[in-house]
TrEMBL record:
InterPro entries: Gfo/Idh/MocA-like_OxRdtase_N, Gfo/Idh/MocA_oxidrdct_glycsds, Gfo/Idh/MocA_OxRdtase_bact_C, NAD(P)-bd_dom_sf, TAT_signal. Residues 177-253, 351-420 form the Gfo/Idh/MocA-like oxidoreductase bacterial type C-terminal domain. Gene3D superfamilies: Dihydrodipicolinate Reductase, domain 2 (3.30.360.10), NAD(P)-binding Rossmann-like Domain (3.40.50.720). GO terms for molecular function: nucleotide binding. Residues 31-154 form the Gfo/Idh/MocA-like oxidoreductase N-terminal domain. SUPFAM superfamilies: Glyceraldehyde-3-phosphate dehydrogenase-like, C-terminal domain, NAD(P)-binding Rossmann-fold domains. PROSITE patterns: TAT (PS51318). This is Gfo/Idh/MocA family oxidoreductase.
Length: 426
């Protein structure tokens, strides 16, 4: 499975062409979609797809059969249909009756699963972060373009009518020259305690769950949700909830790539537990050539909000500032007296946008194209690398390498387990 050639051999045929995919869709009134990973965000994927008039979920894939079967039972009760349940995602990619997949696995699987799906001729909706490290994010972009797949990144706020309107105001200069953006992730994250090593529960394929990552002894500090707080599988909260905000920081500022200088500081201050990633983290991303700055802050416990935003973004301009709260609300304040400017509140449907782009085969129809998966996720990765190394880092955005810093470069990728490698040539 480490290369396209071995994947195609496993799939038992050639990669589905763009034309063949369109013909299959024309023959079937509804897009047939598989949801891979059904325990967390996957539940929202199921609901979101089943709300689309021209798409349906036909397969649920989960390495934990207990979870997958429970989700299938709930699905049948709600929708009156019985989905197929499989444990190994490779069976999904082998299935030529499936047009597209959504991926809601743990972070360490996102890029590889999406690349495999592209190689199998399937369109993809992949949860944030689109990558676990910068190397595999770039490979995902390459795979999407090579196989002409519609790869949608799960940054739902890009489909919010209010947020899109807010960014238009920023681009038109409503608050003047926008020189700084601030991302906020103030989420209540309690202690996970000390879990210890326990037997792998019945029904869980822990080897497949581990996939491309280094395999650790099974523990509840990892499966099912707490993997977020380990470097081996997750990326901390800046790489969890924070990807929505890193994406919006870059989008609203109008920067097209990575920063050239990064610094971060934080740590664990509250709990003596099994979390490895920092509870509190502050990061600065500097774009000196564009005279732009991104600030990002993660707080896990008792804290204030900032002008009503606790999870969101603030943009600072020469004529005022804008606060974006969550996924659907923005407010603008102008001048020294903070006079109220444009504001709005409205949501959107990111799944509907993905389906539209699949039908049109036009990446320009996408609100969350594959490039956002690489850039928004990569920004979080750069901040985490600076934190882990404890120093300011200089980065070359064109080469996507650190400047004369071999130690930092080792964090741009990982050692992949045999059979689960992200290929150099997709």
């Amino acid at each position: 499975m480490s290369t396209r050639r071995t994947f195609v051999a496993g799939a038992g045929g050639v990669v589905v062409s763009h034309l063949a995919a369109k013909q299959a869709m024309a023959a079937n009134d509804k897009l047939r979609i598989a949801v891979i990973g059904t325990n967390g965000r996957g539940k929202d994927h199921i609901q979101g797809i089943m709300q689309q008039p021209d798409a349906e979920v036909v397969t649920l894939c989960d390495v934990d059969l207990k979870v997958g079967n429970a989700r299938a039972e709930a699905f049948e009760k709600k929708y009156g249909k019985k989905p197929q349940v499989v444990q190994d995602m490779r069976r999904v990619f082998d299935d030529k009756n499936i047009d597209a997949v959504t991926i809601a696995t743990p972070n360490h699987w996102h890029s590889l699963a999406a690349i495999w799906a592209c190689q199998a001729g399937k369109d993809v909706y992949v949860e944030k972060p689109g990558s676990h490290n910068i190397y595999e994010g770039r490979k995902l972009v390459e795979a999407a373009h090579k196989y002409k797949r519609i790869v949608q990144h799960g940054v739902q706020l890009r489909s919010s009518t209010a947020v899109r309107e807010a960014v238009e105001h920023l681009q038109k200069g409503v608050i003047g020259n926008v020189y700084m953006s601030r991302g906020l992730v103030f989420r209540w994250r309690p202690s996970i305690g000390k879990q210890g090593v326990v037997p792998v529960p019945e029904g869980l394929d822990y080897d497949m769950w581990t996939g491309p990552a280094e395999k650790e002894p099974f523990s509840r500090r990892i499966v099912h949700y707490n993997w977020h707080w380990t470097w081996n599988y997750g990326n901390g909260d800046v790489g969890n909830q924070g990807i929505h905000e890193t994406d919006l920081c870059m989008w609203g500022l109008g920067v097209k790539g990575f920063p050239s200088k990064i610094t971060a500081m934080g740590g664990k201050f509250l709990f003596d537990d099994d979390k490895i990633t920092p509870e509190v983290l502050t990061t600065l991303y500097h774009y000196p050539g564009e005279k732009k700055l991104i600030q990002f802050e993660v707080r896990p416990w008792c804290t204030n909000s900032e002008d009503g935003a606790s999870v969101g973004n603030i943009f600072y301009g020469s004529e005022g500032y804008m606060v974006i709260k969550g996924y659907d609300t923005y407010e603008t304040y102008l001048g020294q007296k903070k006079e109220k400017g444009p504001s709005g509140k409205a949501g959107g449907d990111h799944y509907a946008n993905w389906i539209k782009a699949i039908r049109s085969r036009k990446t320009e129809d996408q609100h969350g194209p594959v490039e956002t998966a690489h850039l928004a996720s990569g920004l979080a990765h750069l901040g985490n690398i600076s934190y882990r190394l404890g120093r300011v880092l200089n980065f070359d955005p064109a080469k996507e390498k650190f400047v004369n810093d071999k130690e930092a470069d080792t964090h741009l990728t990982r050692n992949y387990r045999k059979g689960f490698e992200v290929p150099a040539k997709v």
